[in-house]
Amino acid sequence: MSSEPENPSSSTAPPPEESGEKISKKAAKKEAAKLEKLRRRQEKEEEEEASRKTASLSIEEESFSRNYGDVTLNELKSTEDPKAGKWREAVEGNEWTDVRELVEAMAGTEVLIRGRVHTYRHVSSKKGFLIVRQKGCLVQCVVTESKENHVSVNMVKFVKQLNSESFVDVIGYVVLPKDPVTGTTQQVEIQVRKVYCVNSALQQLPLYVEDAARSEADIQAGKPGANQDTRLNFRVIDLRTATNQGIFSIQGWTQIGFIEIHSPKLLAGSSEGGSAVFRLDYKGQPACLAQSPQLHKQMAICADFERVFEVGAVYRAEDSFTHRHLCEFIGLDVEMAIHKHYSEIMDLVGELFPFIFNKINENCQKELEAIRKQYPFQPLKFLPKTLRLTFAEGIQMLKEAGVEADPLGDLNTETERKLGLLVLEKYNTEFYILHRYPSAVRPFYTMPCADDPNYSNSFDVFIRGEEIISGAQRVHDPELLTEQAKRFGIDVETIKMYIDSFRYGAPPHGGFGVGLERVVMLFCGLNNIRKTSLFPRDPLRLAP
Amino acid sequence: MSSEPENPSSSTAPPPEESGEKISKKAAKKEAAKLEKLRRRQEKEEEEEASRKTASLSIEEESFSRNYGDVTLNELKSTEDPKAGKWREAVEGNEWTDVRELVEAMAGTEVLIRGRVHTYRHVSSKKGFLIVRQKGCLVQCVVTESKENHVSVNMVKFVKQLNSESFVDVIGYVVLPKDPVTGTTQQVEIQVRKVYCVNSALQQLPLYVEDAARSEADIQAGKPGANQDTRLNFRVIDLRTATNQGIFSIQGWTQIGFIEIHSPKLLAGSSEGGSAVFRLDYKGQPACLAQSPQLHKQMAICADFERVFEVGAVYRAEDSFTHRHLCEFIGLDVEMAIHKHYSEIMDLVGELFPFIFNKINENCQKELEAIRKQYPFQPLKFLPKTLRLTFAEGIQMLKEAGVEADPLGDLNTETERKLGLLVLEKYNTEFYILHRYPSAVRPFYTMPCADDPNYSNSFDVFIRGEEIISGAQRVHDPELLTEQAKRFGIDVETIKMYIDSFRYGAPPHGGFGVGLERVVMLFCGLNNIRKTSLFPRDPLRLAP
């Protein structure tokens, strides 16, 4: 990016005759252009030479080219189809190994890892060292041109041009390095066989992880650091340092790899562009109370927290006088990086809730008995393996029962309840997932389905015919996100910070949110959410 | 309470001549008065008869009278002095047993329980059945006049006049009833030896637990219920039902008997009367963001949750531009009923934090290493048994080191840090409790010391010379609370709801609050709280 005005006759540019400095600048520019030309020519020659040398491989090259490349957004949208592309073919049936798990004992085995391009050191057109980072752990991946391994010089070139902080999937063999590797956390290397760019970060980042990670001693010794304001402004990059990963792991870590986060409820402007927000004055700035931790939990994912959850207050200023709405409620929000598709999120939901239900039934027998005595209810019927239906299947079930519902619209409360009864009758469960919702009824940041953009990679979960959970894969591609925001009539300028956080390298991800008072209400078959809120807040009640 | 106008000539009362009904009402009133007179006479005769019969016991009665009575507030303020009164003498060396733990196997053993007066059934001047309730569990306590057991008729009378929802300490023997007890959860009885009223509830309550606990079926069968608004208005009573104890136990329960609560952050008016609050419009009502969960966690205790904790956002609109203040931070708040004195709270703090520190040191070695690499720090020095010093001792240590500090004032940041160094030098710990703070520097709801009202049953906790925790015993006596609020210049009308919640029966209690970002900052020896807040909010920063 040049800071020079594009049009020299522009009124903001000083007239050339006024400035002697301008002339030397021009000369410098000329010189720089000459050097750049030279550099390009050398690069071209190098490439041509490599190309000549690999001419004999040209037939193989076509098959070798399947071993590297960019993962298309379409592949990341689709669900199970392995024909989607070369990346999908390469990872199909493979499990991802965490970088921190790469140890000497794995030498000789093939692994698939996903991480960020931390740094790259170019040795020659035939060899390079790619350092991949995942949650603060680093591993050296060696890319070496090899006919035997189906690694072409073009693959080396592909790796060379990856922007740092981009996400890559690397498939390769774990090898023991001859000399101890310095500068990485893992003491093994990966001999790369395949490499795919899952998501590309901007070439120029507003903050570099190395600078944010610099110690005081290094800064005093003259190395570049980053000041606190820059770090906090670009917190989504700053949080990726090993230090910050450590600080926030200490604060909340669970055994299944989720980090508990606490996102701010005080936001500048108005959150998500909604109208039903509580507004307040924050030291002279307009502010509002968060309607959900959506933005911040996604930012935590872009900051390499991988799997996060939050239990915290959610604020809705809606005038809903129903049995199931509150103006302040406790949300459980989950967000997670996904490897292949959004069914990974549904897998979690489908396992987590039956687990919770079983635990309550086991550990809270006396409590349930006490509740049942005053408010009789039947135990919730749920399956060990949670039922999953598509929205279209739901519409079809309703249709067969004589209930018409718009296949591209939303279900109303009554229709949801009716569907709940049909599902109970047919599948004997009061807990199920309905997915592939019409795109039109989901937020702009919802990932559309690969095969039909009228539907989206999203789901709702129902208990006793009432919706309790909404979840989806998110759009992590800034261009598609911008396009969808515009289509939904959102002024993209107001969500610039949100969109920008996906430009610094973002993994495919998704999550869900659930109102905890509502879960307890429906689990216990209670008729009013005020019964499960300690000190409820509704449009008329602000006390005690 | 009569709904008749007290002054019949009042303009709101209809003139007598207009209403024929009035005359019959008058007649009814006359009749009622006659009956009431009769009832009182009978009661008096009964008492006199009892008194006559026990005349021979009059010498013993003086010693028997030590076995019942009201616990003085002074006893509940003081710490270790067993001479404080008959209650203190009776419970000294005794442990409280939970009502839910009373089972057949305990028959013959003496127990001490604390609970609320649920109901009382009077049999005669010599016998009564007191049902005691603790966290939704009920046990029948039999009070029988007995020379052998040192139980006088006056003690039976004392029990008879206890208001329901008052707190009592009962000492007695566990006995197996001849017939199965109906209407209680526990299948054993207690033969009462001693009974003390720890806290008295109002005689007339705005809501009765039995009414709040009524099932739909019972209400339809004609029994009195309570509507939702009444129940939510007097939530502190409503939450005492077994049903509500069940609902909120399901939502969050820990192994050491603490229930996790979520209190509302949206409050009517301005919380705690402070000026540094964020104000907002709540559907036309003035509202503010909670500066602490103080009110609601205390209400949870008055609602029989016994031991609660909350992890949630705390809002401070202060213009503090320091390394350790944020406008929104995560507070860990704890509140608990106490049996004897506030050292029970300090015991918890003194055990909990070393436990947490040890767990972090054990489980987060890699994380601590990563943090230390960028921000070098020494491991925190703390003792297995947390050091406890009085404020006066702290002042004395400072004095000996040549630092003058007001013995009835607060310590400033610099003096706190100095004291931290002196404590480290003398006791080799960077974590300690300083207690018995001057009353003048603590909130109005802090319990004064029994031996000197200039000091209070309060404490602060320090890490590396910086305050991280503030805690205290609270005033649970509404009269003393009113008096102290006035002395602090608080308009008691604005905190009426808060004070009133102690009129419906409240146990002695206390608790503490701690900022979690500050704990992590100081544990890791970091120099700025923005390093341990995910997306910090300070007077100038409201994004990202």
From TrEMBL, chains A, B:
<keyword id="KW-0963">Cytoplasm</keyword>
<dbReference type="Pfam" id="PF00152">
    <property type="entry name" value="tRNA-synt_2"/>
</dbReference>
<feature type="region of interest" description="Disordered">
    <location>
        <begin position="1"/>
        <end position="61"/>
    </location>
</feature>
<keyword id="KW-0067">ATP-binding</keyword>
<dbReference type="InterPro" id="IPR004523">
    <property type="entry name" value="Asp-tRNA_synthase_2"/>
</dbReference>
<comment type="similarity">
    <text>Belongs to the class-II aminoacyl-tRNA synthetase family. Type 2 subfamily.</text>
</comment>
<dbReference type="InterPro" id="IPR006195">
    <property type="entry name" value="aa-tRNA-synth_II"/>
</dbReference>
<feature type="compositionally biased region" description="Low complexity">
    <location>
        <begin position="1"/>
        <end position="12"/>
    </location>
</feature>
<dbReference type="InterPro" id="IPR004364">
    <property type="entry name" value="Aa-tRNA-synt_II"/>
</dbReference>
<feature type="compositionally biased region" description="Basic and acidic residues">
    <location>
        <begin position="19"/>
        <end position="36"/>
    </location>
</feature>
<keyword id="KW-0436">Ligase</keyword>
<dbReference type="InterPro" id="IPR045864">
    <property type="entry name" value="aa-tRNA-synth_II/BPL/LPL"/>
</dbReference>
<dbReference type="InterPro" id="IPR012340">
    <property type="entry name" value="NA-bd_OB-fold"/>
</dbReference>
<protein>
    <recommendedName>
        <fullName>aspartate--tRNA ligase</fullName>
        <ecNumber>6.1.1.12</ecNumber>
    </recommendedName>
</protein>
<dbReference type="InterPro" id="IPR002312">
    <property type="entry name" value="Asp/Asn-tRNA-synth_IIb"/>
</dbReference>
<keyword id="KW-0547">Nucleotide-binding</keyword>
<keyword id="KW-0030">Aminoacyl-tRNA synthetase</keyword>
<keyword id="KW-0648">Protein biosynthesis</keyword>
<feature type="domain" description="Aminoacyl-transfer RNA synthetases class-II family profile">
    <location>
        <begin position="257"/>
        <end position="536"/>
    </location>
</feature>
